[in-house]
Design a protein that fits this description.
about 300 residues; mainly alpha; 9 helices
Length: about 300
């Protein structure tokens, strides 16, 4: 059963990545109404928008079934592991929630601020599935959490960055839904104006707000890399794990600039969504390790 769970968890994590990319593709191509104002039925003339929207719905539906099976089996088979039951619930709950928000967006008009929640909710579900996968793979070659005690100060950084990253993701999704991707055609400043210029129009404020939020996340991530190097340079999990996270954050910022320079090239935009998803998954793992450390510290 464990071998089957491993395979299922890898499939679930992979299909959740496809759900995230599919949602970004729907938004970037303006395919949200490709099936008309119908859900779950898809109606309309055959077009690229219909194919993209219908494909996203099918992948999301398949993800729902696979994640549900994974959650139930994980609960039954490895539910004795401390975090499994919580992650099983979170993974399916937020996947259903993002589906309902997607359906509501089709059936009833939603504001850009509500639609921007969609990606973040999907991201939480992906992170829960990803962590379930790691826990299942830990069963044979278990990572001894008691050998890694993360200090309270570093734990607070992980918790804070986790919450803040969700805010950054929200602002990025708002940029897409508010059609603000090219509100500023230069980078890092907006049309060569200083970031403190009060003549920006609304979409420019959204774009610059996201850049500012992403810039702080970038600085925070690298600052944490310095702290971890100072305190954990002999611990491979901490050092190389967060070095990977730092690399992903640098790549994310570079891709954000590339999106502007290429005038929202679709491939660059999708990679932008992919990299932040992987970064959030890695960050979530450090949050899990932090929660274990807090337990062993008591």
């Amino acid at each position: 059963m464990i071998k089957f769970l491993k395979s299922l968890s890898v499939i679930a994590s992979t299909i959740m990545v496809l759900v995230l990319l599919g949602g970004a593709l729907v938004t970037k191509t303006g395919s949200g109404m490709g099936c008309g104002a119908n859900w779950p039925i898809c109606e309309g003339e055959l077009s690229a928008e219909l194919i993209i929207e219908l494909s996203h719905r099918l992948v999301s539906g398949a993800a729902g079934i696979i994640v549900l099976i994974l959650s139930v089996l994980s609960w039954k088979v490895v539910g004795h592991i401390r975090e499994v039951k919580f992650l099983s619930f979170v993974s399916i709950f937020f996947l259903v929630l993002q589906g309902l928000i997607g359906a509501a967006a089709v059936l009833w008009s939603q504001s850009d601020f509500v639609l921007a929640l969609h990606f973040g909710i999907s991201l939480i579900s992906f992170a829960a599935v990803f962590l379930l996968t790691l826990l299942i793979f830990e069963i044979d070659q278990k990572f001894d959490a008691s050998s890694l005690i993360i200090t309270k100060g570093i734990r607070r950084h992980f918790y804070g960055l986790f919450i803040y990253t969700l805010l950054v993701v929200y602002t990025g999704a708002l940029v897409r839904h508010a059609h603000s991707s090219l509100a500023c055609r230069s980078w890092p400043f907006c049309d060569n104006r200083t970031p403190f210029n009060f003549e920006f129009h609304f979409t420019q404020w959204i774009q610059m707000g996201h850049r500012f939020a992403a810039g702080l996340a970038f600085i925070w991530t690298l600052y944490l890399m310095v702290k971890i190097y100072q305190q954990y340079k002999h611990n491979r999990v901490m050092l190389w794990g967060w070095a990977s996270a730092s690399f992903l954050m640098v790549a994310q910022v570079a891709l954000g600039a590339l999106v502007i320079f290429t005038k929202v090239n679709l491939a660059a935009a999708l990679f932008h969504a992919l990299v932040i998803s992987i970064f959030f998954g890695v960050l979530s793992y450090f949050v899990l390790l932090s929660s274990r450390s807090a337990k062993y510290e008591r």
